[in-house]
Each structure stands twice: as C-alpha cells, then as structure tokens.
Amino acid sequence: MSKELTLISKPGCHLCDDAKAVIQEVLKDFPEVQLSELNMLDDQKLIEAYSEEIPVVLIDGKQHSFWRVDAERLRSALS
Asked: I want to staple 40 with a disulfide (CB 3.0 to 4.6 A). Which of 1, 24, 46, 61 is the partner?
C-alpha cells in the first residue's frame, strides 16, 4: 500500500526549501510514495494550525515532523 506524504510550506521559507530537498532525496528510495505540497497561505485553516511550525510534513494525513526533516527518521516512517 502506498503512502501519501504532504509538505505544508510557504513561499520564501528557507526551512521549507531545505525540507523539500531532504524529502526529494529520501523519496528516490520510495517511488510508490505520492508527494503533494500545500502552500499554507492558500488555506486559512493551515495558517491557524501550522503558522509557527512550518514546514510541516504529514504522512497519510498525520503530522510526522515540523521545522526540520531528518532523512533517517523519514526513511524509517516510510518503510
């Protein structure tokens, strides 16, 4: 069963750029994982929920991490 990974970010966020780079590298080993990216500025509910925590990574809709993405922890969660 494939997993869905969601990155919640916003434009101009250097931590978001760093997180996306780590995610893209990890996902090379998990081609079945679907990646989607949400711009929190497009959704008031995302702003209210995550404004102090971006970037946020969700796996199958559940929060996995925020601020920084640890590649090994992400690999473990996707395995």
From this structure: 46
Report how far residue 73's alpha carbon sits from residue 79's, in angstroms, rounded to the nearest whole number: 10
Phi, psi for residue 38 in degrees, rounded to 5? -115, 135
The CATH topology of domain 4-78 is: Glutaredoxin (3.40.30)
d(CA 79, CA 76): 5
Read off the pTM.
Answer: 0.92
Residues shown for the chain? 79
- How far apart are the C-alpha atoms of 9 and 24, rounded to whole Å? 15
Other CB atoms closer than 10 Å to residue 3's CB: what's the count?
A: 14
Predicted confidence (pLDDT) per residue in 1-52, tens digit:
679 999 999 999 999 999 999 999 999 999 999 999 999 999 999 999 998 8
Q: Give the pair of three-digit tokens for residue 54.
A: 């971006």
Q: Could you tell me which residues are beta bridge partners of residue 7?
A: 37, 57
